[in-house]
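Memo to structure team: turn this sequence into structure tokens by end of day. - J.P.
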Amino acid sequence: MDAKSNSRDGLFERTGQIIYGDRFIGRNFEINEIRKFVVDNRANVAIVGMPRIGKSSLAWQALMSCKEMLIRDHKLIPVYIDVSAINSKELFFARMVSKVVRELSKVNHENQDEEWKSNLKHLNHMARCIESDDLASLNNDFYDFFEDFYQLTSYQIVYILDEFDKAQNIFDASDFLLLRETAYIPETNLSYVTISRKSIKEIETKDKQNLSNFHGTFNKYIHLNVFSSEDMDSYWRRIESRITFTNTEKENIVYIAGRHPLFLDLCCLQTTSTPDVSIIGSANLREKLYDEFDQIIDMLDEKGLLSTTKQVIIGPPQNIDKQKIDKLLDFGFLNVVKACKKASLLSTTCNDPEEESYILFSDYFTQLFYFKFFLDIDYWPQWNMTENKLREIVEIFLEGRYGKNWMNIIEQENCSDSDWMERWKILVERFAKNKKIFFQSTISSPVIVAETGEIYYQFIKKYWNIWFSQIFTPIKDNELVFSNSTISISNRSWEEIFGFLMKVRRPFAHTNTYILSKEDEIVAKGYCELVLNKIAKWEDSGMRPSPIANQNTSLVGTINSDRNRILTTSSPAYIIDRVNGFLSGYSPDVYSYTTGEKVKFDLYETVNPRTGLPFSFAVNVRPYNA
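Reply from structure team:
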């Protein structure tokens, strides 16, 4: 980063506050729309968007920054009110009248004669009366004030109501109706520009039986999104007129912030403050980003959009509402990208790289969201329990068989299996990203970041003969039951079951949408119940995997003439398990063992159901040199 002559003084002034004037970037279309509807047509405008996206700054730049011109040339007085600082309806309405009277007193009226002064005195008196009004007389006095205001001054008023979501807590239906009528009837001629996270309809319908239809008076909704490409060009032109960032620094800033105005400023400011330190390495910046992101998550939860976001980013999809996806796109919270882009971000795989899918507004926040929620699929508790139980038994197997250093051992053991190693590399990358991105993470191994299909193909199937076949035993007819009796599936193998669950697990794409049908959801629930029941039976049996001798080698013995026992010098003969005794490709039907031939084998430890004592079978038998 090279500092230019003017340095960065004032470059990030008012970051996180209302920005206007030269500090305000872009949004030309939105500004023109607000002025067209409010100034030219005296219409109501609602600005809606996620937290900290620049809603207040947009309204201020469009109207308050040119207040003198609006008053002089258009006889329009803009009045700004922060609703979040108001705790009662009485105070809100009193603030409306007192602020506009104060603004009127500042107006340099061309004929400030005795009549003007008398009118101003009259309006001041009315405002004080309203401030002391009880609820019974408030409405009439409120109407009278604005009728008199317009008749006596010929000025019109536009109220900019910031943080209007607060109205949901302090208003009832009659209060919204009061605002509606002041905007609707010609005698008062008020206009409103509201700034909120929710739509006006959502705000005024906390009691669904009391709908005032205030939202019906709004002619224009502006869903404020992240910066456009043109806005980004303007942003970088302004920044680089004072400071030059390297390409790597700009890439890191965009990786974290995307096109989000506040996050761009925070990241640029951090880069200029500590140019030799990784942006995300700053604890101060991380704390700010986490806090701001939590506010966005709270908003999504409050608007009923969090579950949909989890389903399209993490999966599995269960009850996705297309209208909610459209809202998330309007907010700029979701972006449409190629599936390969998303797979690269999250270190996952995709069937069709060119298929379209969803990520969040920045790469960093996509990863943060994924790692924050992927272990907590709260909208489908049964699935959440199934996947976490599968992770648990895999870790039990790996630690029980290989010890605490199991990661290095299984890598050595599978180094010649290119497919396994490729999948393992993806899991390790995802595990590393989790540690880097989500600093609060307590994830202990790559197994915990594995999804259903990866758990099966990477671990359960790989070590099926050695251990997992003892948990996932053949399925009996009465073990697979679906909540809908018309669904009947027979002769379904574990490979098919886990394959189906893997298909369900992947979040759906944008164009070739896989939305879970009701029947598939019932089947998935039945399979989850089956998996959980099998694991529960295994837990009740008390079986645990036996460690390998020396933690990294198989046992050695000789095979008997009947090919059903292994003889060793240090222990009694081990019975060869009838189902999983021989490694694939080395059963006596395929390979001719000679009596007394030296072989390698592993142990599977179980419990004798009659005596309750430990009992070991030989499994995975193969020729010594295999």
